[in-house]
Amino acid sequence: MKKYKYLTLSKEEQKKLQEKYFQTNDGINLKKIFNRIIMYSICLIIIGIVLSVQNYLNDKGTTSYIYSIFLVIVGIAFLIARHNIFIKKINEYLINSKKKSK
């Protein structure tokens, strides 16, 4: 993983920076998008798990298992991508706010 200035901050500084960022217009819009992504990924993971259990109980073919595993993997990938985008956006905000204050 790349080194970001955001990751070098202490936990308290990170929380303060997040609060400041989510008060901006970009932060408000990004938070809405992130909430949607979290809902989608949770739904995908739950549907994948339910399908896996249902396939196990009904002895379906291997394609059903592959489909359910695929859904879980996509849901997890959404969560990972959300986290990476969050760190990049916060880091950009940190760098730009330091440039503006100089």
Provide the residue-averaged pLDDT: 88
Q: Tally the helices: what do you get?
A: 4
Uncertain segments: none
As a percent range, the share of strand residues is under 5%
Q: Give the CA-based shape.
A: elongated
Tally the beta strands.
0
**Helix-strand makeup class:** mainly alpha
Tell me about this structure.
The protein has 102 residues and is mostly helical. The chain contains four helices and no strands. The protein has helices at residues 5-8, 11-21, 25-58, 62-101. The longest helix is centred in the C-terminal third of the chain and has 40 residues, at 62-101. It is elongated and about 65 Å long. The mean pLDDT is 88.
Q: Tags for this entry?
A:
87% helix; 102 residues; mainly alpha
Write the layout of secondary structure elements.
Elements: H1 5-8, H2 11-21, H3 25-58, H4 62-101
In short:
This protein is mainly α. 87% of the residues lie in helices and 0% in strands.
